[in-house]
Specification:
Chain lengths: 221, 221, 221, 221, 221, 221
């Protein structure tokens, strides 16, 4: 099944985002690296401006911030932290979260937004998903959701519809994940499971490593 | 919400299919025109080779064939009829239908396939959908489903995920639908409902007319 | 498909609600007009007492209130505002919202309740839906949900199961929507999209304009 | 929760069907009695013409036919058998089944059709459901599905949306079921489980016994 | 269908939990008795340690606590109340609820957790379900959900996947429910409906009374 | 997350099936090995009698039969072929397939049946699933579905609910898959993807390799 994918390579849809802004939203540091790190690195290489918006740093603020910055630098993305130290997503009402995302979308005018999926088990993640859904009313952008993210694997339903070949950025992704030392190495947690996921997704399209996205809405033409 | 859509125009994803083959599959004549006629006309204008594969001509063979040819010519597509006169989709076993589609996919090597959706109420349509799902195992192609099609409107669930601006091809679409005189004018059935559908889909993305597709799988990059 | 619908006309199910109370619940002003305005006007003409309960006026309180009153007058309904100025639905806990609805249901003893649907993208709307679901435990009433409502169209899944012919009240509905000048004309937003929706729903049952409702529960006999 | 249901009694929606034809479709003898026997008896008492269409008599033709006739007489309904002795539903192609139902609908011009549900485990039952869905395109009628039917209970998902109080016809229903002696008493199978089901459904609306229907589409007004 | 169930009896899966801790979580007093009382009594008879964790006592604190204690004693379970008098589940943020459950799971090291289901209509119940889902990340345990619970019956979707024969504990269950006098006898509410439910579930597996559970995850071997 | 799984080991649920018959049904040779080979090998080691029922050998009859025999021997299972040479599942009507499964179930009196899942893309696989669902009415048995099986990976939705630790039988499983040389090595297809799947499933429960099953129904106690 491999050859057709190669045929697409010269016309990668990512080129569409060149010189445009892509907004990637994650509830906490490491979510974006886990869910869509390989894609973000590819977007950066395609000369998109990629903004990683981290909604909150739940605790151990300085260390998590330093890790988030290191990881964003590895991926080549800008970093924004939406909620200051000492406050949690749960401390904000849904309309306040929507307000933050509305502001981001108005400010950045993104052509694509990548966010959590509706089927996450972490409440903060689904809250972020729902607020992103609401932000759709402000302007049109391609809207994608990434695989449920977690430090310790729990089975969650997720059906990818769009694939990104991350063969050339998988190592960058794993490196960015490992930058969150407090979450993985510091707890004795293995990060090779994310390479396993990417390998399985890659098998679905005939490449070595891939990430899968669900498609909320997109403009084909 | 209109301006961002204009911003995408210079980088339409359809350009990806230029010089490539797109396979559009419909159970009977008029299904493709109803579901995706505006998109097919846009693909043709983007210099894709578009093959309309009609699985069967249920009855009144000569007239339906002439209408199908006229409509394909209006859209600028090649036409293939898979099952000869006097036989119906129900006369073929599922594995035989899969066999026909496998052959088409092997022969045409399409980069994208557009087919019926899983939520149609017409059994022939869901049979076509299922056989297309099976053909996915042979090679990778972008896989899209179009809105349930019918001559007389019945409410069916369908959630579009990808939109195509068909403002410049809506008239061509309606003309191609009207080429099926035996199904519409000949029965006193109005075709303006399809313009209504396209107008509503257009409102979802801020253009005058649009078609919506569900995304089975696609390669973003 | 038109003739059978005419045959039903002499036995419209709405006559069931004559002299009874129907409770229609909307999160904010304009929601009921958008989702079910034509139905409310028909219920009023069938001599039902229709109470429009607006949960909150999010901001610009005086103006929104005046608009809500004007629209209710156009439709011929009573108006109740549940939450006072300066407070939002998000400021109330779910059990408080349930408490308000319990009180309404106990006070009005409605034979039917119309509310938002489960598939809305606005969190306030789904919160209203859920609180209405809870209120079902207090007494039996027919429970219907209306189409997702929004000022700027975003695709949301919704499957109508019950239709109301609003051909004779569509103009009243549009007039009631337009009474919310701050939301539509004042923002340069077109309201003809709601006539488009009603025309498409009408086509599903063979009348000129219709509204569609999802059925939570109802007593047929 | 009982009193409101009584309030509806004077305005039972069943009166809508007085002097009209209601078509009830069951794959085999006993399906209609099990799924909707109490409702059919109530419709007959409300002076509707009720036609029970049994698609096939799978075997033991004479006996099953006699039982079906006896049961229809108990309920007060007309009986039609669609497929002659010695042939099964599986012996007909989907378009042939649709053709039979189209003919029935054209011939009887029903204002309501009651059929199997989409979530049955018996393939014949879902085939009957799907063919009824297709028949919707011919004319508008209220479309209801009844609870999955089976001689030996297996858990199947089903969500009733419309209830019929069958307190006064439950005994008639059980009697009609018992008329199918070959299926129940003849196999030592108890039929009291169907009274249990009706009691539980009744509890949902505050009456002694009820049947629940799913609503495909209906005209409220 | 009865005999195979008897064949299983000697190897009841409950024996797996002998000498282990099973954690049963209910939003309020009576939820566990209603949803899974017969199962808890059987687990106790199989020498499991069963901890009933009641998240909150909504009001009438002393009386509800006494009833909860009486019911737990009837079932033979330990009782824990998570939230002190005067506070409700809605007064806690989702992360605080997760924190409570994390602590319970860490403290008790349960091999199985029984909790509310995702399809409840009571917001507190779904909040409890979601917090239990989150607690899965801490350690592996079998995760089951019980039937939606309510004092006044409202139809809710629920699909049991695992059955427990409660023929020998149904009377204990009803007795434990009746210990909540303030909720049932004190309001004139009948509790025989719960015997009806158990009888219907029993019919699905060929025993007199059963309870049904949905399976979130479990280790078979 | 590993330790609790070890705690279960002494009380593996598989011991329940010791000296009993487990029936595993696959549409074609290799399906059972792919979907549930590690579990079958574990059941055999737990002294269950495991019957692999292969519905049909689609073509190349002698070779496929030899491969199926070799694989069954590797797993330690009995092998039954239901349909003789030269006929396909599609050549049988649904009631005939149900008849075959009814006979198997009556003959073998299995305490558990493992079959395809409802979400397969291969029509033969879903036909086998549906016929197994029907066979549930004859007697009670635990009913499990295994992961969609395919020689060339295509993304399909599947949510495991029950896990089997196959760390000690994964090599046996891969060996049994490789016995189907005509399907894998003979076509240049890699079988390591199945080890990847097992590794990911293992991560969900904290063991090295696992298989996941969906639970249709089961008796817990």
């Amino acid at each position: 099944m491999n050859q057709p994918v190669a045929a697409f390579a010269a016309r990668s849809l990512l080129s569409r985002y060149t010189s445009c802004t892509v907004l990637a939203i994650g509830a906490h540091p490491d979510d974006l690296e886990l869910g869509v790190g390989g894609t973000l690195a590819r977007l950066v290489r395609a000369d998109a401006r990629v903004v990683m918006a981290i909604v909150s740093l739940p605790g151990d603020h300085e260390r998590r911030l330093a890790e988030a910055r290191a990881a964003a630098a590895i991926l080549g993305c800008e970093l924004r932290i939406l909620i200051g130290a000492g406050r949690r997503i749960d401390d904000f009402k849904p309309y306040q979260l929507v307000g933050m995302f509305d502001e981001l979308v108005t400010d950045l005018a993104p052509v694509a937004v990548l966010t959590h999926s509706a089927t996450e088990f972490h409440r903060d993640h689904t809250a972020v998903y729902q607020a992103t859904v609401s932000a759709q009313r402000l302007r049109f952008f391609d809207f994608f959701s990434y695989h449920p993210t977690m430090c310790r694997p729990v089975q969650m339903p997720f059906q990818p519809r769009a694939y990104i070949d991350v063969t050339e950025t998988i190592d960058t992704k794993i490196k960015a994940i490992n930058a969150h030392e407090s979450q993985f190495a510091g707890r004795g947690l293995d990060t090779e499971v994310y390479r396993d996921f990417a390998r399985l997704h890659g098998r679905m399209i005939g490449v070595k490593y891939a990430e899968g996205l669900d498609v909320g809405r997109m403009l084909l033409a």
